[in-house]
Amino acid sequence: MKRAALITALAALLAAPAMAQRPLQLSAGLEGAFTRAHSRATGATELLSGATFGGEANLAGKRWRVRLGYGEGRLTADTGTAAARSVTEGRAQLGIAATTWLTLWAGPRARSYKSSGVRQRWWFWEIATEARGALFADRAFAFGGLAVAPAGTVDALPAFSREMGVAAGLAVRLPFDGPWARLVYRVDQTRLAGGRRETVEAIALGVTMELR
User: Fold this and answer.
1) Which residues, in sequence order, are CB contacts of 46 under 8 Å at separation 6+?
2) What Cα–Cα distance (Å) separates residue 178 from each residue in 12, 53, 101, 173?
3) If you average pLDDT over each of 46-60, 78-92, 150-164, which comes out highest?
4) Does residue 16 surpass a pLDDT of 60?
5) Angle at 67 between CA 27 and CA 154, to 5 degrees
6) Average pLDDT over every residue of 188-196
7) How far from 19 is each of 63, 65, 87, 115, CA to CA, in Å?
8) Alpha-carbon distance 33 to 16, whole Å?
9) Do strands 44-60 and 25-41 pair parallel, antiparallel, or not at all (unpaired)?
10) Least confident window among 89-103, 138-152, 191-205
C-alpha cells in the first residue's frame, strides 16, 4: 500500500507540468443519496439504510484528470437488531483520458463505519474506467463506470479478498447554461476471506458546477 501511494504521488508530480501548459478546467459538485449497506457472513445478515451527503472536486487538463470526493451519513437497521452506523467515505484518484469518451482512473478509497463508539476502517486501492456518451450535444450525456480493487485492508475482520463496483447515470444541463444535474446508481461489493460480503448501493441526485 505504501508503494501504491508513492506511485500515485510521483504520477501527480509528473502530470503537473503537462497540465500547467494547458488551460485547466475545475468543477465542483454536491449530492444527496439514499444508501443501503448489506452485510452477509456465515449465519448472520445485516441490512441498514439511510441518507448520505457528499461532494466532489475535479481538475482536468487536456489529458490528465484529478478528482477528490468525500461523503458521510447515518445508516439504521431495516431488519433485525443491528446497531446504527455513521459512515464516512473519501477518495483521491488520478486519471488519464484514453479517448474522448473513456477515462482511466487509479487511486485510494477509504470508508469508515462508527457504531456503538467503535470505528472500523476499510481501505481500497482502486483501478477504474469511466465512459460517457452524448445524448444531446452540450445538453445531456449518459455515463457508466467499472471499478476493481485488487488490494485493501479492513480493521478487525477477515483478510481482504477483492472489491468490485459499477455505476451508471444521466447528466442534464440546466437552462441558461446552468449547472449539470446528475442522477446516478452505484453499487460495490467487498469480499473477505471466509465468505463474508459487504454490499453498498446508492441512488444519488446531485449538481455540478463548472468553474473555469
Assistant:
1) 37, 38, 39, 40, 77, 79, 80, 82
2) 31, 22, 22, 6
3) 46-60
4) no
5) 145
6) 85
7) 8, 9, 34, 42
8) 33
9) antiparallel
10) 191-205
